[in-house]
Amino acid sequence: MSAAMDTESTYSGYSHYSGHSKKAHRQGRDRHKSPRSKDGSRSEKSVTIQTPPAEPLLGNDASRAEEGQDDNWGETTTAITGTSEHSISQEDIARISKDLEDSVGLDCKRYLGLTVAAVLGLLVFLTPIAFILLPQILWRDDLEPCGTVCEGLFISVAFKLLILLIGTWALFFRQPKADLPRVFVFRALLLVLIFLFVFSYWLFYGVRILDSKDTNYQGIVQYAVSLVDALLFIHYLAIVLLELRQLQPVFTVKVVRSTDGESRYYSLGHLSIQRAALVVLENYYRDFTVYNPALLTASKSRAAKHMAGLKVYNVDGPGNNASGQSRAMIAAAARRRDSSHNELYYEEADHERRVKKRRARLVVAVEEAFTHIKRLQAEEQQKAPAEMMDPREAAQAIFPSMARALQKYLRTTRQQQYHSMESILQHLSFCITNNMTPKAFLERYLNPGPTLQYDRDRWFSKQWTLVSEEAVTSGLQDGVVFVLKCLDFSLVVNVKKIPFIKLSEEFIDPKSHKFVLRLQSETSV
C-alpha cells in the first residue's frame, strides 16, 4: 500500500506539469489487466530480494492505472489468473536465509581481519619503544651512561617510526571497496611475516637482554634501531607485492554481458581471480551502459507472436505425445523464417523513425524553455524587480514546457524507469546554476550512460556471485573463464595472455634518400 501511495503521489505531481488525458488512463487500465505485464514480473522478482525505492517520474502504465481506479474497482474488475514465472519455493526461502547467514559471516570475517591487523600494527610500533624503555625501568642504576652516539640514535628511531607510521597509514588504512569471498593471500603472508619477525626479536630480547640484564645501553638502543630498519624493509616489500606487481599489463580480459552481448576489453596485471573480478566490476559500472531489460522484451514478444500464430492439428489421433507437436511447431516456425526478417526490418525502421521524431520535438522544446531564462549579473541584481528566482525555482518554472516531450521520448526509448521527476529537476537546476546549454542538459537523456550516472541505491547490484572452476585465490592464467552473477544478468570474463612481442631494428641511412625525376614526352612538366 505504501508503494502504491508513493506512486500516486509521484504521478499526481507529474500530472500537474504535463496533464494526462482520460484516454491515456483508459489505455493504462487495459494494460494493467494483462496477465503478462513486464513490470509486474519485474516487481514480483524484486520483492523477494529487496524493497524497491520510490517510483520513477515517467513510469509504467500499470502505475498510472492505479491512479485512475475508482473505489469499487474490487467489485467491477475481472481477475485473470495464471502460472507465475517467478514463484518462491521452500528451497528458495532456505537459500535466501543462507545468503543472510553468509552476509553476517562476511561482516564478522571482515571485522576480525581488521582487529587482528590493528592489534599487530600496535604491537609493531610499541615494540621498539619498549626495547628502549624497559632497561630504564628495570635496572636503570646498572646501565652504562648513554653518550652522544646513543642520543643521536634516539632521533633516528623517532623519525623512522614516524615515516613507518605514515607509510603504513597510506598503504593499509583504506576504506574497503568490497567484501571478497577469500582472504588476500599476499596481505595475509605479510601479516604472518611481521608476526614471526617481531616474535623472534622479542624472543632474542628476552633471552639475551632481559635475563642477563645487559648494561650496554647503547647496544640495546642499536638493537631497537635494527628492528625499525627491518620493519621499513618489510614495508617496502609490501609496496612491491600489493601495489607495484600488478601495474604491468600481462593479461587481456574480455567482459561480455550475458543479456545483450555488450562487451569491453581490459588489461590486467598479476592478480588473483577474486581481485580481477573486483577490477572488472569497478570498470563495469563506469564503462558499460546501464542495464535496461525493457529493450530485451521486444524480441521475446516478437517470437511469442510468431509462435502464437501457428496452429497444430493432430491427425494421428489422441495417442500422439506432445513432443511431436513441439517438433511440428519448430518446423513450421523455421519455414516462416523467410518472412519474419521483413517484419523485423520494418519494425526497427518504424521505431527509429518515431525516436528521431520525438527527439527532434524534445530538442526544440528544451531550447525554447532555456530561452526564458536569463542570468542576472551582480550589478543587475540590485536593480532587478522582486521576481528573482533561485536555480531550483527557475527549473520548476520552465520544466512544464518540456515535460511532455521528455516524457514521450523516454517512453519511446524505454528509459522512463531511470529518471524520476526529482532527478530531472535536480539535473535541470544544476545545468541552470552552471550556465550550461540545452545540449548539455539533454546529453543525459539522449544517450544512455553508465550505471554510475543513475541512482546508486536503485540500480546498483547489492551482491555479486563469483563462479569459477579455479580457486578464486589463484592467479590469472591464459584461458581462465569466470562468471560474475547478479540478480538480472551475468558478466562472462575470458582471460587471454598478452603474447610475447619480438621487435627487430633496421637502420636506414639518411643519405640514402635520393631521387631522380623521370621526364616523359607526354607529361605536363
TrEMBL record:
Bias type Polar residues, positions: 74-86
Biased composition range(s): Basic residues: 19-35
UniProt KW Transmembrane helix keyword: yes
Domain of life where this protein originates: Eukaryota
Record-annotated membrane-spanning stretches: 111-133, 153-172, 184-204, 224-244
Disordered: annotated span: 1-86
Membrane protein topology class: Multi-pass membrane protein
Compartment(s) where it occurs, according to its Swiss-Prot or TrEMBL record: Cell membrane
Keyword field: Cell membrane, Membrane, Transmembrane, Transmembrane helix
Compositional bias of kind Basic and acidic residues: 36-45
One annotated Gene Ontology cellular component of this protein: plasma membrane
Similarity remark: Belongs to the Vang family.
Database matches in PANTHER family: VANG-LIKE PROTEIN (PTHR20886)
Protein name: VANG1 protein
Organism: Panurus biarmicus (Bearded tit)
